[in-house]
Design a protein that fits this description.
The chain is mainly α. The chain has one domain. Helices cover 86% and strands 0% of the residues. The radius of gyration is 20 Å and the shape is elongated.
Length: 95
């Protein structure tokens, strides 16, 4: 996790009147630099008016990340399955 992105997000939230602990809780949930960058963009563009909006966006970012992970896992499994179909079970076991 990028400490710079975390601190930037916390500072923005503090400017909006939220305690540092709220920012740290959001950062802990988001975990990754890309997720925090997306939240920072939302905070600067959307200017949410209450903590519920911020939490909703955090959840949306996390759900999108999980969908992407599931998609990549499914693509990998499909690739392996297609290779199995193309080569047969005997060839797959040799690798």
């Amino acid at each position: 996790m990028s400490n710079d992105e975390e601190m930037k997000m916390i500072r923005i939230l503090q400017r909006y009147g939220y305690p540092e602990s709220f920012g740290r809780a959001i950062a802990q949930q988001l975990r990754t630099e890309n997720s925090m960058k997306r939240m920072i963009g939302y905070l600067l563009q959307g200017k949410p008016s209450n903590p519920e909006e911020i939490a909703d966006e955090m959840i949306a970012i996390e759900e999108e990340k999980q969908r992407w992970i599931q998609k990549k896992q499914a693509e990998y499994a499909n690739q392996k399955y297609n290779k199995l179909l193309a080569l047969g079970l005997d060839k797959e076991e040799e690798e």
